[in-house]
């Protein structure tokens, strides 16, 4: 599915953010990337999506070298990315955005289903414009809905819990559980939340631009939670 070979990325200043990463991510997995703030998690996600280009190494998707391909080509190949801070689109309705995401007109029931999965009452939101009347949390949930609607082979969520209330977060965790149960594509989530880490098939811990550990979700989570000497990951945040 996804493979990195000696992947690295430097800022124009010369500071190295991602340092010689090698790892394979398999098909139909729910994988969580975690680690200290500033460790390189979001940078790695942007490299996968094509938002940033690596300064060294290679990225392979389904056996194809995509290192030099742009974000549009990767999207067409089946890679979706939900930003940590959602982009706002003035003048569009929620319906418009969802239909742009899937590339076709959507039935009312399908829109309702997608919005309910992120904790939104669809009939209140489907025809609302994406403007200042929506809160940051609402915009975040709508963006997550557009990514879910695309149903791509690889879906990347950068801290999907940010700005979402507890009830909606619970709905979001349930959505991730259903994705994992149905094994529809690979989901890659960047998160510190224990409830998200606890449902992962695999956990990858990144610190100082390097992979410090990776493996079966429940095994890595035990290490993070119960090894007081571990510097791999900060204490799990409360919901």
Could you explain the architecture of this structure?
With 239 residues, the chain is of the alpha/beta class. Helices cover 35% and strands 25% of the residues. The chain contains nine helices and ten strands. The strands form two sheets. Strands 6-7-8-3-9-10 form a six-stranded mixed sheet, sandwiched between helices. Strands 2-1-4-5 form a four-stranded antiparallel sheet, with helices on one face. α7 (166-182) links the parallel β7 and β8. α3 (94-102) packs parallel to α6 (136-150). It is globular and about 45 Å long. Mean pLDDT is 85; it is low at 234-239.
SSE pattern: EEEHEEHEHHHHEHEHEEH
Q: What is the helical fraction, as a range of percent?
A: 25-40%
Query: What percent of residues are in strands?
Result: 15-25%
Taking the sheet with the most strands, its summary is: 6 strands, mixed
Strand elements, count? 10
Estimate the global geometry from the Cα principal axes.
globular
Our Rg estimate from Cα atoms comes to 18 Å
Number of helices: 9
Give unreliable regions as ranges.
234-239
Going across the biggest sheet, name each strand in turn: 6-7-8-3-9-10
Structural class category: alpha/beta
Ends apart, CA distance between termini: 31 Å
- Average pLDDT, rounded to a whole number, is 85
